[in-house]
Amino acid sequence: TSEGGGHHGSVTRGRGGRVVTRADGGRYVCRASNRHGVAVRSVLVTVEYRPSIGERGCPERRRWLEGTPAQLGCAATGNPRPRVTCAKLGDNRDVPDATEPGDHRDPAEATTNVTRAHAGTYQCRATNAHGSAVRNVTVAVEYGPGGVTVTALPSANVTRGGGFTVDCGAEGVPAPTYTWALPPAPNLRLAADNRSVTVTGATVANRGVYTCTASNRHGRRAGSVVVRVDESWLAALAALGALGAVAALGLAVAGGYYMKTTACKKGEYNVRDAEGSSEAACLHRHRGDRGDVFGIQLTQP
């Protein structure tokens, strides 16, 4: 007979025995009797078997948080109890197994913290005297938002009436979500994923600080950019217009003076000294028998 979770009742062994299963383990009581008495002896039977690693004790996908201790717990069954080691594929260094009690590891190894370089596929191997079992585990490393960049395109210095876009980007796992603190203006349009803000027809209401906050379940981080709406071109345009008016007036006065003083009129000219000349300017007039006669001065080219 057996006690404690083995095979209960009488055990009959035929020739050749039978296949042992794990259920056969336990304490057996052997009793021998005849008409002179009884002898009893108990026997503890241990069934040994090779290791196995299942999904329940060793999920094939894990999430680690950056900065926490790097431990890959992977439970295996087996008798004798198997030793479990896990190493990243392509890397010979083992990752401490959080499931093994009384494991005396090197202190430096025990305090290794998770970095983004730990992400990848690991192979866990359980070994005992009867064999080994292998299981691959994929590890993703999560971390809070970082590297937040806020950029105004094409520039943070905007001309009144122009358009611009403010983009926000950040690293993080899981992927961050984005929120904004913006100047109160009616002409702001957020992108569907909230990663950018677009402004058309910029006015003074659009100038100010544009702050983007990236968030995930591990934290949040913010970044800002200052947008300036430049209206100085209006003053420049007004000054340019005034300058143009002054210049036009000056040209008109000069033209009138020219017309009054130096422009040649139609009529008869004294060209006594005109040979070899190419330019002439009217200098004076005097009256003759046939009307006004204009004297001219000739210059060499």
From TrEMBL:
SUPFAM superfamilies on file: Immunoglobulin
Positions of region (Disordered): 87-110
Compositionally biased residues, Basic and acidic residues: 90-108
Record-level Gene Ontology MF annotations: integrin binding
GO biological process: cell adhesion
Source taxon at top rank: Eukaryota
PROSITE patterns the UniProt entry points to: IG_LIKE (PS50835)
Annotated Ig-like domain residues: 51-140, 145-228
GO cellular component, one term: plasma membrane
PANTHER family: INTERCELLULAR ADHESION MOLECULE (PTHR13771), INTERCELLULAR ADHESION MOLECULE 4 (PTHR13771:SF8)
Protein name: ICAM5 protein
Origin species: Pteruthius melanotis
Gene this protein is translated from: Icam5
